[in-house]
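#struct-queue
[09:14] JT: dropping the first one here, sequence first, then the structure tokens:
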Amino acid sequence: MIRLAALLISIALQLIAAIFALRLMRVTKYRASWVLISLGFLLMAFKRAIKLIQFLQDDFSFYLTMATDWLGVIISVLFTVGVFLIGEIFYSLKRAEIERNRSEKRLLNAILQTEERERKRFAKDLHDGLGPLLSTVKMSISALLQSKPEKENKDIIENTNVVINEAISSIKEISNNLSPHVLTNFGLVSAIKNFTHKINQTKTITIDFSSNTEDERFDGNTEIILYRATCELINNTIKHAEAKNIGINISKHRNTLTIQYSDDGVGYIQEDLSIDNQKGMGLSNISSRIKSINGVFIISSIPNEGTNALIKVKTN
């Protein structure tokens, strides 16, 4: 009785396995490997059915025994060839994953390039549109000052002239932040050096910048992404870290460009990056940008011991 129950359970399980295997053939696009494995499951159930017939009829004749033996051989062949060929499915899945990653990178690159074009267009509109208008107003104010107006009017005109000068300076600064001409004309190292110099002039934080690639140029998209990433790291430190010093080193060894970043701020707990906050989102954006150029971005921090970041990118 126990043997009968075991035979019935095994037949049921093998039929269930065969049905699921057959249903998955469409998903696997009827690849030979899965077809063979599905047939193997079916024949296993059929073999068990013969065993059940032998048991119920107490018929262990030569022909039935030979049939089960040869079914065993056929099943073994089907499974062996199926397993041998199943690598094709995994290779196909791997290719699909690679293609998906490439598509994501192409999409992200397209977004970043569109964003950068819009930055440049907006910066140009500010510089070429509002700049000349304010300069014209400044010339008119200067002409009024030369006409020796009354003291009360002169004070108003002089104050207006100061405001216009500040507006012109602000437009130049905004335009340069949106699309730094130094980055376009002189490259990554010069642009970051210029950015850190402006921050050092504020005396709020000290940035020690060094590089062994002073005059070297890299791919335009790579330079833009590395510049934005470095600026984002600096902004994060200024906003959140309460640091007094920042260290930045850009070095190139063979075909690898490395940016090492550190600050002496309050640091943070690594798990905090999973929280949807401004700092976490900023670092997530950096990581996405670096991945889009096949780079590596690693950041580590310990509370009260500062933050360290490493960026590595292949230059060719």
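[09:21] JT: and here's the second one, same format:
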Amino acid sequence: MQPLLLLHGAIGAADQLAPLATELSKTYKVHALDFSGHGNKAFPEGDFSISLFAEDVLAFMKEEGLEKVSIFGYSMGGYVAMYLAKHHPDKIDKIVTLATKFHWTDEIAAKESGMLDAEKIAVKVPAFAEALGKRHSGKDWKEVLAKTVTILKGLGANNTLKLDDYKDIQAQSLILLGDRDKMVGLDETLDVYKNLPNAAMGMLPDTQHPIEQVDTTVLAFFIRNFIK
């Protein structure tokens, strides 16, 4: 079986992709990891960054003896996959992204960061706060959010991948978006798709941004149809 690596999104962890991993395990040798400071992984010494998470992937591949992989990246995980394809093309076969926000400005970063106010979440959405505490076991979930705000503001000030960067990415890529995603826009997704030399694009019906609300069977169909 060919290897397939699953990458989670911001403030998430590999366990969120477990249903998808199970669905795909009949077709691929599925791997998943937690980025630094997420899930069971300890906080890094410095801030979160796309380059740090890319190094997490490279270290994981080395540990698992994986010379080259295809990647499914959800949300921020898709951004990391594209970063790897840009800077480490020899390590990447094919890429599928879903709900990845590619366009960042100070205004967008401020808006998204405002949704990660830990104190407000603790008061207004206690069930979500409890879920974050369980997901990031052994760590302060509020610090996970604070460090995530740092990376979002960094992207807003200086987007790690500019639109022209995608022209250099030769990996075959499938860019997916949910038709009801309120965080990621169609225009920014189309812009990246049009700049990738070897890309296809797809729309998941009746699909919002949260990975828990994505139909795993439908998503697995798209992935299998593209990564053969």
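[09:30] RK: nice, looked through the second one.
[09:31] RK: The two ends are 10 Å apart (CA to CA).
[09:31] JT: good to know. The first strand starts at residue 3 and ends at 7.
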